[in-house]
UniProtKB/TrEMBL annotation:
Record-level GO cellular component terms: cytoplasm
Organism field: Holtiella tumoricola
GO molecular function terms attached to this record: DNA-binding transcription factor activity; transcription cis-regulatory region binding; zinc ion binding
Protein name: Fur family transcriptional regulator
Transmembrane domains' residue ranges: none
Chief place where the protein resides: cytoplasm
InterPro entries: FUR, Fur_C, WH-like_DNA-bd_sf, WH_DNA-bd_sf
Cofactor entry: Zn(2+)
Swiss-Prot/TrEMBL GO biological process terms: negative regulation of DNA-templated transcription; regulation of secondary metabolite biosynthetic process
Family membership noted in the UniProt record: Belongs to the Fur family.
Length: 139
């Protein structure tokens, strides 16, 4: 938690128990939870924390570039503490979000910049499909 507190302070964010809990939870999961999932996960240990507080905290953490927001469609968002540039793959059935580990992304970014003559600042790459678990349930 000391590391999390330092990161919040470094980005000029007030250190509160709620912010620490949310940032710590996101830093220790690969599940890309929604605000509601975070709220439900933390409400037993933080009973006075509201869902509005979770949303406001997530917004502050995104603006500080401490986490990233993943748009899973239809105004639904998930959150990831891994702010390194990496693509995500989203199941269109269960809506699970997975990190896609690949070394080709810098090559793709360079190719896009070369072809379009854009000076790229960042990228977000999403792939959509049906995960293996949902495939087995469908058949």
């Amino acid at each position: 938690m000391l590391l999390a507190a330092g990161q919040l302070r470094e980005h000029r964010l007030k250190v509160t128990p709620q912010r620490l809990a949310i940032f710590h939870m996101l830093s220790n999961t690969k599940s890309h939870p929604s605000a509601e999932m975070i709220y439900n996960s933390l409400r037993e240990t933080h009973p006075t924390m509201s869902l509005a507080t979770v949303y406001k905290t997530l917004d502050a953490l995104v603006k500080a570039s401490l986490i990233q927001q993943i748009n899973v469609g239809e105004d639904a968002f998930r959150y990831d503490a891994n702010t390194d540039s990496h693509p995500h793959i989203i199941c269109t059935h269960c809506h699970q979000v997975y990190d896609l580990e690949t070394d080709e992304l810098p090559d793709l970014k360079a190719l896009v910049a070369e072809k379009t003559h854009f000076r790229l600042s960042h990228e977000q790459l999403y792939f959509y499909g049906t995960c293996p678990d949902c495939q087995s349930e469908i058949h």
